[in-house]
Amino acid sequence: MRGGLLAASMALVLLPVQANAGEVWARIPAGAFTSALRYADVPGQTQMEAFELMRTPVTNAQFKAFIDQHPEWRADRVPRAYAESPRYLAQFAPGAAPEHQRPQQPVTGVSWFAAQAYCQAHGARLPTWNEWEYVAAADATRRDARTDPAWRERILGWYGKPSTQPLAEVGRDPPNAYGVQDLHGLVWEWVEDIAALLVVADKRDPGSGNELKFCGGGALNLRDPTNYVVSMRLALLSSLQPADATANLGFRCARSIPSDAPEKPP
């Protein structure tokens, strides 16, 4: 039953969508990266290829434009296999509180399937876990600030704040060293290979081999058990099913760069 869900969900995207003016892409250079996760089949650094990542999360306005062109992803039409939660796009429901409907707030209540469909309609995809962590490791001046205790404490402080206030608009935080904003403290974000973060069977397509992409046959753990920033993200994402939707989970898109593409000036 689940084996065809991914292909079928992509088939729901029938027409290309023009990219909105607010979709600005940051070019992320290639480089060596030591993931916070320890892979049995990758003992050291991973060589990251160059890619592009949206500078900010997808907004309510951007996702609303998408479902206007693709109404099959509206809450009243999407198949339950792709959005099981009653929280799916709750902010667009009649009678929803205005403070959750601001156009420049990050869209939340989006399932993995809907997020991936949005990205694919824009010629993109969800970022992988490694891509997201690679960019999220940066602060304003350093490409990798993860060993700085003050940086970790600041992020943990953001994650620990009670979510009693409406979400802020995207672009509130200064860009990091890659020119990307709002990676910490605004919303959690889907990644493409969410199912592979578990050491158990793949949640999307049994037998696909995706469950081995991260765990290398079952041996996955943290290189640094005290890295609570990554532990919190991993705990949240690995607890989700692709059809889940929550009020604090959004996404941004990534896209690969052809190997023969010219380098952009810094």
Descriptive report:
The chain is of the alpha+beta class and 266 residues long. It has a single domain, classed as paralog of FGE (formylglycine-generating enzyme). It contains seven helices and nine strands. The strands form four sheets. The chain has a three-stranded antiparallel β-sheet, with no helix packed on it. A two-stranded antiparallel ribbon has the order 2-4.
- Using the CA coordinates, give the radius of gyration: 18 Å
As a percent range, the share of helical residues equals 10-25%
- Biggest β-sheet: strands ordered side by side in the sheet: 1-5-9
What is the average of the pLDDT values? 77
Kindly name the structural category.
alpha+beta
Strand content: 5-15%
For the largest beta-sheet, the strand count, sense and barrel status come to: 3 strands, antiparallel
Q: What is the molecular shape?
A: globular
Oligomeric state, counting identical vs distinct chains = single chain
**Low confidence ranges:** 1-22, 199-222
H/E series: HEEEEEHHHHEHEHEE
Tell me the distance between the termini. Answer: 47 Å
